[in-house]
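Hi team,

As requested, here is the filled-out complex form for the adenosine monophosphate run. I kept the field names the same as last time so the parser does not choke. Let me know if anything looks off before we queue the next batch.

— J.
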Amino acid sequence: MLKKGIKPLTKLGAKFFDKEDIKNMNIIMLGAPGTGKGTIAGILEKKLKIPQVSTGDIFRKHMKEGTELGKLAESYISKGALVPDDVTIGLVEDRLKEKDVQSGIILDGFPRTVKQAEELDKMLESENKKVDIVINLTTPEEEIIERIVNRRVCSNQECKTIFNLQLNPPKQEGICDKCGSELVQRKDDTVETVKSRLNSYFEQTSPLVEYYEKKGKLYSAVVSKSINKLGKDVAEDVVKYIEENF
Ligand code: AMP
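And here is what came back:
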């Protein structure tokens, strides 16, 4: 369920969405690691036809290609720490100039610090744009670790579908249902790294909940098996909410 503000909503209505409006939306996915940002952003991308941009995916691509940026990012990511602001902000600044995101973007994993959020506001303002909606995902902490260690991702960069061995297993072990490529486990999806990633979230990223709440942009949803709400269910709620309110 999705609700404006910090407390999650219990009731939602539905309406046809105006495609023109949707296309011009800038959406931010906020939430601790393992809450389903990537899964939901992937579904929204298809349904709303707005490109998903994940800073984590960009870093992983550079790591795979062994670029200087990739080596630098890996030294932080492998420890569960955030990549420094100047590097990450510069990366997003360049990405925002590309043609495909001129009429809308779903930012998945950015911003992760108040500094990043402030710089994003400036970047968008300079183009007469703004953040339209921030989807704040929460999952009980005990479920997060379980979700992360069971996460498997499609190794095909064009597909990147996310599975969970317990909650959303692939039909054939180790193989992506969608494209048939090999499924892999992210190097930072280990119990040890998850704890540092959660610390980074609580110390550096969670202040963004208040940042966007004060601006009236925050919409919260709980992703938890305890209430039968997985990423795909929340994605449906988000689409419905956008249809009705934007
Ligand atoms: P994700 O795929 O979003 O879980 O990101 C994986 C890792 O990449 C994070 O744990 C961070 O180390 C790094 N990262 C991704 N996005 C950012 C960001 N906006 N700021 C700093 N580090 C980031």
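Two things worth flagging: Residues 27 and 203 are 23 Å apart (CA to CA). Confidence is low (pLDDT under 50) at residues 9-19.

Thanks,
J.
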